[in-house]
Specification:
The chain has eight helices and seven strands; from the N terminus they run E-H-E-H-E-H-E-H-E-H-E-H-H-H-E. With about 260 residues, it is α/β, with parallel strands linked by helices. Strands 3-2-1-4-5-6-7 form a seven-stranded parallel β-sheet, sandwiched between helices. Helix 2 links the parallel strand 2 and strand 3. The N and C termini lie far apart (about 45 Å).
Length: about 260
């Protein structure tokens, strides 16, 4: 008979070390706090370090160690320096959440410039690639790790409004990258999963939520509302912890039922 495992202990992250890109605000902030509340030390990464520092200070008040790092995740040199700094401070990296990104708003496809296209894919897809490569090397050495990528319902459906082809493409690619890495790194005991959020109340969506568009979002969501930022914390903790020890290569929707239509 197998030894009984206390279910709450499966969510315990005591002693774990994490990096959360885009962890200074919005859903990234909530996920960084979730890891810290479960016992992890967390490096908070943001392009504006003053935003990252606010979240890092909240984490320290929880009794966990935290550092705020200014990083452009689309720049390899920045990412390499990030990994070196976190390794020096924490000694290892057990968890990576790739949450850095920019607004999905863009011109209609025929009006998107090459620069705009590159900016969108660099912020989302290239950043996820570079961070996963750099942190993945460390996890392979340790034969352990959990990587959580941020996809979106936009990677699977075309949202209203429709003028966000570059964003949709980046998020779809992240979902497939997640499955590819899960297959490639499973032999190293590294799990790779993705979260695909629907509409949430965050600084990035504030303008849209104040417009007539918000009512359409609510109408199209079976739950009849947008998500509140804290509602992502449970899913992030599940995927980061041993509670999901048999989950890899999954893309999990958290959208109030939006994609059920």
């Amino acid at each position: 008979m197998e030894n009984a495992v206390n279910v709450l202990s499966m969510f315990d992250l005591t002693g774990e070390k994490a990096i959360v890109t885009g962890g200074g605000q919005g859903l990234g902030r909530e996920m960084a706090l979730a890891l810290a509340e479960a016992g992890a030390d967390v490096a908070v990464v943001q392009r504006r370090v003053e935003i990252a520092e606010k979240t890092a200070e909240e984490i320290r008040k929880l009794g966990r160690d935290s550092i705020a790092l200014q990083v452009d995740v689309s720049r390899s040199a920045d990412v390499q320096q990030m990994v070196g700094t976190v390794k020096e401070r924490f000694g290892k990296i057990d968890i990576l959440i790739n949450s850095a990104g920019i607004s999905g708003k863009s011109p209609a496809f025929l009006d998107v410039t090459e620069e705009q296209w590159d900016t969108m894919l660099n912020a989302h897809l290239k950043g996820t690639v570079l961070c996963s490569q750099a942190v993945g090397r460390e996890m392979i050495r340790e034969k352990k790790g959990s990587i959580i990528n941020m996809s979106s319902i936009s990677g699977f459906i075309v949202n209203r409004p429709q003028d966000q082809a570059s964003y949709n493409t980046a998020k779809a690619a992240i979902a497939h990258l997640t499955k590819s890495l899960a297959m490639e790194w499973v032999r190293y005991n590294i799990r790779v999963n993705a979260i695909a959020p629907g509409y949430f109340r965050t600084p990035m969506t504030a303008a849209s939520l104040a417009s007539e568009r918000a009512e359409k979002w609510r109408e199209l969501t079976p739950m009849g509302r947008v998500g509140e930022p804290h509602e992502i914390k449970g899913l992030a903790l599940l995927l980061a912890s041993n509670a999901s020890s048999y989950i890899t290569g999954s893309v999990i929707f958290i959208d109030g039922g939006y994609t059920c239509w």
